[in-house]
């Protein structure tokens, strides 16, 4: 580096930069200043480091690379990386002391008690909050982080300049003022918080749902006070006001008792000592004829209360099924059910809980099937449901077990019950009831002519046939001899014929087969070759 400084030629590439590079450097400086002074939500030191790296690389691309340029670029880039990598520790350090939840007006609120040091720089509160669970199992889960930036907007101590003893201009009790910028990182909305007293600001979401409340206890009043002004006098020199040590001027007066003391003081304030301890407490200050304003105090540590509701965090609300306690009061089924036959089963339920809920009812049994396999019913005070039972081939006593369950937040609550029936043979002949006017399936014209018609003359048609009935005339010779004047006897003829649907199906099949054959045997035309 020393060689680089001593070698004047080594700096020629820096001096002889093109106008374009100079413009880029100027633009970079403007960006750095803008990043530091305007975009306070971005880490200042990271902005400076990144911009420095970009400008250095842009400079390196100009002209030919040499050893001097490489040394210069390396030193700048290393320094910029230190800014970027150390930006986290250079920023204000935060600590979250406590997080509490509460329910107000049917909404969940999260309250964060936190403190920040060096609030005069900037401070980012970023915290992912945990979900809240009600006693009934309803959960409210925040989807957004708490993202609040608090930084100094303006802070100062302002003293009034008044006439004091010995004709000096002295300072009065100061007024303390601090304004903090509170920025909501989720919505981008901001408000000004007065820091010299206990104050609170509310930031509402743009959609009108949810709000963020930030409160402070009063920073200047608790942490930092305005510097002591007792040994400060304001004098004017060369048309400007300066803050000097008041004791020094008063002591000088003691050496001038034999002279005109006003004139004596004037002689000694030609080069009065500046009160560096007082003005050094500020980053900057200004003096006018009536006011002394000092800015940039170290605000020390500040305590904040940040409160937001579930709407602000765009929370997802999940409400599980309400709790209840199902009880099976009875299960009804026939005492005897034939093998391989169907019957019905009815289940009656009541609720021992306070809430209506969904209950799943499941019947089971050996050599028995049910339709449907299960049912979900809404159980208020009481209800009932039924199933179709299909009995198997086994005979004898059979048990049916029924279970009714509710799946709640605290676990599954079930009740069970059982009932039995006797499975009997299905070959048992039913009691004959001939003469009741109904032709039963086990009755015929032969066994019960009073109930059933004689169907011996009726044609028995095959599956592809349909029966028909037509009226015909029985012509005799005397009918022909009288040319039909004697009418022939008429009778009804029944029989079977091929069903019309069969002809329709055959016609469709014929069309499909002939069309398929025509497609297969047809030959595509050959394309003529282009000459």
Number of helices: 12
Indicate the low-confidence ranges by residue numbers.
1-17, 36-42, 87-93
Structural class of the helices, strands and pairings? alpha+beta
Q: Give Rg in angstroms.
A: 52 Å
Shape: elongated
Q: What quaternary form is this?
A: single chain
Work out the number of β strands: 28
Largest beta sheet, briefly? 9 strands, antiparallel
Mean pLDDT: 78
User: Strand share of the residues?
Assistant: 35-45%
Can you tag this structure with a few keywords?
nine-stranded antiparallel β-sheet; 28 strands
Plain-language structure description:
β1 and β2 form a beta hairpin. The protein contains 12 helices and 28 strands. Residues 1-17, 36-42 and 87-93 have low confidence and may be disordered. The strands form 6 sheets. Strands 3, 6, 7, 8, 9, 12, 13, 14 and 15 form a 9-stranded antiparallel β-sheet that branches. It has a 5-stranded antiparallel β-sheet with strand order 1-2-16-11-10, with no helix packed on it. A 5-stranded mixed β-sheet has the order 19-26-25-21-23, with no helix packed on it. The protein is elongated. It has helices at 2-6, 12-15, 19-37, 44-60, 67-85, 87-90, 219-222, 246-254, 261-268, 276-279, 477-481, 500-521; strands at residues 94-104, 107-116, 122-127, 132-133, 139-141, 146-163, 169-171, 175-184, 190-194, 199-204, 211-216, 232-237, 240-245, 284-287, 291-295, 302-309, 316-318, 326-332, 336-338, 342-351, 357-365, 368-371, 375-379, 382-391, 396-408, 411-424, 465-474, 489-498. 18% of the residues are buried. It is of the alpha+beta class. It starts with a helix and ends in a 10-residue tail after the last helix.
């Amino acid at each position: 580096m020393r060689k680089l400084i001593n070698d004047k030629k080594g700096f020629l590439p820096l001096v002889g930069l093109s106008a374009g590079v100079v413009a880029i450097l100027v633009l970079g400086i403007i960006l750095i200043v803008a990043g530091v002074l305007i975009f306070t939500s971005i880490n200042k030191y990271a902005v400076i480091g990144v911009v420095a790296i970009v400008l250095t690389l842009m400079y390196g691309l100009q002209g030919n690379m040499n050893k001097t340029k490489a040394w210069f670029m390396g030193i700048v880039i290393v320094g910029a990386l230190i800014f970027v990598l150390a930006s986290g520790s250079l920023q204000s350090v935060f600590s979250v002391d406590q997080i509490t939840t509460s329910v107000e007006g049917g909404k969940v609120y999260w309250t964060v008690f936190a403190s920040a040091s060096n609030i005069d720089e900037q401070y980012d509160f970023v915290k992912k909050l945990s979900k809240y669970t009600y006693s009934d199992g309803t959960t409210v889960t925040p989807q957004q982080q708490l993202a609040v930036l608090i930084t100094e907007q303006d802070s100062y101590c302002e003293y009034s300049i008044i006439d004091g003893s010995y004709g000096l201009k002295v300072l009065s009790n100061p007024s303390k003022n601090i304004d903090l910028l509170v920025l909501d990182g989720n919505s981008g909305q901001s408000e000004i918080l007065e820091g010299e007293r206990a104050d609170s600001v509310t930031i509402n979401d743009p959609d009108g749902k949810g709000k963020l409340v930030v409160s402070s206890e009063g920073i200047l009043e608790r942490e930092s006070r305005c510097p002591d002004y007792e040994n400060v006098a304001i004098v004017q020199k060369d048309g400007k006001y300066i803050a000097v040590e008041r004791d020094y001027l008063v002591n000088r007066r003691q050496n001038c008792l034999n002279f005109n003391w006003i004139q004596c003081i004037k002689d000694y304030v030609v080069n009065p000592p500046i009160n560096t301890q007082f003005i050094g407490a500020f980053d900057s200050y200004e003096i006018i004829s009536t006011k002394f304003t000092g800015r940039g105090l170290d605000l020390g540590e500040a305590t904040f209360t940040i409160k937001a509701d579930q709407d602000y965090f765009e929370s997802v609300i999940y409400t599980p099924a309400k709790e209840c306690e199902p009880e099976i009061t009875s299960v009804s089924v026939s005492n005897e059910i034939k093998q391989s036959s169907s019957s019905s089963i009815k289940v009656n339920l009541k609720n021992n809980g306070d809430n209506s809920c969904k209950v799943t009812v499941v019947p089971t049994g050996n050599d028995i099937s049910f339709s449907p396999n299960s049912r979900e019913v809404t159980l208020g005070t009481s209800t009932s449901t039924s199933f179709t039972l299909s009995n198997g081939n086994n005979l004898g006593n059979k048990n049916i077990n029924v279970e009714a369950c509710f799946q709640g937040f605290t676990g599954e609550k079930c009740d069970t019950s059982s009932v039995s029936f006797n499975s009997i043979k299905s070959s048992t002949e039913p009691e004959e009831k001939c003469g009741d006017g109904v032709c039963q399936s086990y009755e015929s014209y032969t066994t019960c002519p009073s109930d059933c018609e004689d169907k011996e003359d009726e044609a028995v048609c095959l599956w592809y046939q349909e029966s028909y009935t037509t009226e015909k005339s029985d012509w005799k010779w005397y009918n022909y001899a009288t040319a039909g004047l004697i009418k022939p006897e008429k009778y009804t003829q029944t029989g079977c014929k091929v069903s019309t649907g069969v002809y329709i199906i055959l016609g469709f099949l014929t069309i499909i087969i002939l069309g398929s054959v025509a497609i297969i045997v047809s030959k595509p035309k050959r394309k003529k070759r282009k000459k």
